[in-house]
From TrEMBL:
Protein name per the record: Uncharacterized protein
Keyword Membrane: yes
Organism: Caldibacillus debilis GB1
Keyword Membrane found: yes
Keywords annotated in UniProt: Membrane, Transmembrane, Transmembrane helix
Annotated TM spans: 27-46, 66-87, 108-131, 151-181, 212-231
Length: 234
């Protein structure tokens, strides 16, 4: 008989560094990437006329591409790395057998650990990146938090395709195709499902409603991707 959900969750957190992340190697890489992001944000901040340029309906790809595209891509690649060994020699079957119910909770936890770290790291680093505009004031808060849906969305897409196909390379391929098309079309190809809403200045160039709907759709899509990825098909 399978163990209870509580016991399974307890085992997951107790043995995380013995089963899923030996010696914390993946977390150390994540921390190193976030440290590099922080250092870059400190030494190369956004210009002080950033908001004025946005209100003038300029598309500031050179400024916002870092958090709109680069950081979410790093989070997605770390997601791929974290789950890569699951689909070698069908290891996912062994791991999935010990999770009760139709929903693979440890998979959610593993994904959430990476995404949470990137969200926190990105939020703090963005506060320094946009410090010439607003340094941790209310405006600075919104400037930092607006990128988080991108991180959640792209990493959830990576996990979903990987889990559904049982192939890490398929997850990388689909995610990179979406990423490249969205990046080089400057948000025009996927429109409402584009990650480039900030860099393409959807808020002022199109409308605030369009921009907010874009942010909401990315979060909803991420939730659907996560549900599809973690639903266990027996």
């Amino acid at each position: 008989m399978r163990t209870s959900i509580f016991k399974t969750d307890n085992v997951f957190f107790k043995h995380y560094f013995k089963i899923y992340d030996i010696r914390g190697f993946k977390l150390k890489i994540t921390a190193a990437l976030l440290l590099l992001l922080f250092v870059y944000s400190v030494f190369f901040p956004a210009p002080s006329n950033y908001l004025l340029s946005l209100r003038a309906k300029y598309r500031l790809f050179s400024v916002d591409r870092l958090y709109d595209y680069t950081v979410p891509l790093l989070a997605a690649l770390m997601t791929a790395f974290a789950f890569f060994n699951d689909y070698k020699n069908q290891t996912y079957r062994f791991l999935g057998y010990y999770h009760p119910g139709p929903f693979n909770r440890p998979m959610v936890y593993r994904w959430a650990i990476i995404v949470f770290l990137f969200c926190i790291g990105s939020f703090v680093s963005a506060g320094f990146y946009y410090r010439n505009v607003s340094f941790f004031g209310l405006t600075g808060f919104f400037l930092s938090v607006r990128f988080l849906p991108n991180i959640v969305f792209l990493s959830a897409l990576m996990l979903c395709v990987t889990a559904l196909t049982k192939n890490s390379y398929a997850g990388l391929f689909v995610t990179l195709v979406y990423y490249i098309l969205d990046l080089f079309s400057q948000g025009r190809f996927f429109k409402l499902f584009s990650m480039g809403a900030n860099a393409a200045n959807f808020y002022y160039a199109i409308s605030p409603e369009y921009y907010l709907f874009n942010r909401l759709l990315l979060c909803l899509a991420a939730g659907c991707f996560l549900g599809l990825a973690c639903y266990q098909r027996r």
